[in-house]
Amino acid sequence: MVPFLHALNMNKLFALLLSFFPVVVLASVGDETLDLTSHWAGYLALTLFVIAYILVMVEEFTHFRKSKPVILVAGIIWAVIAWVYADQGLPHAAEVALRHNILEFAELFLFLLVAMTYIEAMRERLVFERLKVWLISKGFSFRQLFWLTGFLAFFISPIADNLTTALIMGAVVLAVGSGNNRFISIAFVNIVVAANAGGAFSPFGDITTLMVWQKGIVGFEQFFSLFLPSLVNFIVPATIMHFFIKNETPDALEQTVSIKPGGVVITILFLFTIMTAVSFHNFLHLPPAMGMMTGLGYLMVAGYFVKKRHDFAKPPSERFDVFRKIANAEWDTLLFFFGVIISVGGLGFMGYLALVSEAMYVQLGATYANILVGILSAIVDNIPVMFAVLTMQPDMSLGQWLLVTLTAGVGGSLLSIGSAAGVALMGQSKGHYTFGSHLKWIWAIALGYGASILTHLWINEALMDGPIL
Asked: What is the full per-residue pLDDT of the chain (469 aa) written as tens digits?
């Protein structure tokens, strides 16, 4: 790993970003693009974005929702850009660029909104609660439960999001492992790793994979080349942690929960909606978001009959209502994505992403740069990191694009704050699973991270089209 020492060349980039020379640079780097990286507007935008992201990272302590600072900063960044461009006689250049960024967000927003609505509908119909109760009532040993919740998280997260998957499995662990704090802590680490790993080999498993798929860089079926590397990422740390769990059997809990009418139909329609999105993209060459919106139509029609046949006699507040499910979607998360995508798009338009691309993908090389992306995603949310890579559009082979998709997806497992799954479980565990308890296993998770990368470089070598290192 000695070549990683070349990362010190990044100092040139940071020196450039932080050196506030009194020189104003407005060099044209395109027909209607100005290089603002050494201009006061660029420094201001970069500073504001860093401040906003610090507020995002401390949300757990301040309870200041993450969408608020990034949306505010996004508006200021583009206002500053538009002002500078208008002053240089280019009043419409910023408008054209911003419309492009808004279009990218709109496709992601519509896709995620439908997926979140379906997940909320399935939760309200007690589909996930039924799965949880079934697991609790089977009387599995702690070791069996450790592996079962891990494998379920790995295979559910490619369809549902890793956050929902982690919360469901976490509820099972808390219910069965009550009083066994050590088991809960280790099982939660395993769930975070498994959920993030499972999301890496599916276009629907993580926001980063969805962004890469919607961009048309990696085809739907090509993501499954990452199945084995993702599995290795989960299996290696899980095998190590297995030996630290006592092979005891907790008392089985007797509970009964039935799926509400329409729950099974809605689950089937969700799978059919995913098939529709894939078909629209692969065969009709339409945006996947259009297929998902068509799937929302399926849910609306089904919801009408569920309400009419089964919920008509209930009070209005208890009836199945699709629009109530839409209202219950993760709006803070959706608006956070807006702020991040628009802000990063603005920094890219100023020229900063070109500098980062030069420092990482030219000086380090694609493989080391993509490994570094995964490590960064454990500290900074993987959404802006991946969006930055997509905006840079480095000249990479399919194998390298798959590598950065893998690392951005699983790198967040290195720290508990590196993924939505980890942050959510810290809140759910009530002190049993913390930043420190996760950090104890970073060495095992790092072994899995390295092993998954080596597995990908080995089995997908033919997709690299050139030297790997």
From this structure: 333 334 334 333 333 333 333 333 344 444 467 888 889 999 999 999 999 988 887 876 888 888 899 999 999 999 999 999 999 988 889 999 999 889 888 988 898 899 889 988 988 898 888 888 887 788 788 899 999 999 999 998 888 777 778 888 888 888 777 778 889 999 999 999 999 999 899 888 888 888 888 888 998 889 999 999 999 999 999 999 999 998 887 766 677 888 999 999 999 999 999 899 889 988 898 988 899 999 999 999 999 999 888 877 788 778 888 999 999 888 887 888 899 889 988 998 898 877 887 888 888 888 999 999 999 888 777 777 888 888 888 889 999 999 999 999 999 899 887 787 887 787 777 778 888 889 999 999 999 999 999 999 999 988 887 666 6
Query: What is the rounded radius of gyration, in angstroms, for the C-alpha atoms of the chain?
Result: 23
Alpha helices in 157-284 (DSSP H): 162-176, 181-199, 207-214, 227-242, 263-282
Compute the half-sphere exposure of residue 370: CA atoms within 13 Å on the CB side of its CA: 30
Judge whether 158 and 204 are in contact, CB under 8 Å.
yes
CB 199 within 8 Å of CB 206: yes
Work out the burial of residue 308: count CB atoms within 10 Å of its CB; fewer than 13 is exposed, 13-18 middle, 19 or more buried: exposed
Instruction: Report the amino acid identity of residue 336.
Output: F
> Residue 185 class from Cβ within 10 Å (0-12 exposed, 13-18 middle, 19+ buried)?
buried
d(CA 364, CA 357): 10
Q: Rounded to whole angstroms, how far apart are CA atoms 121 and 124? A: 5
In 3D space, the residue among 77, 335, 386 whose CA is nearest the CA of residue 210 turns out to be 386
HSE (side-chain half, CA atoms, 13 Å) at 15: 6
Is residue 143 within 8 A of residue 247, CB to CB? The reply is yes
- C-alpha 283/C-alpha 277 separation (Å) is 10
Alpha-carbon span 8 to 323, nearest angstrom = 52
Domain ranges of the chain: 108-330+363-463
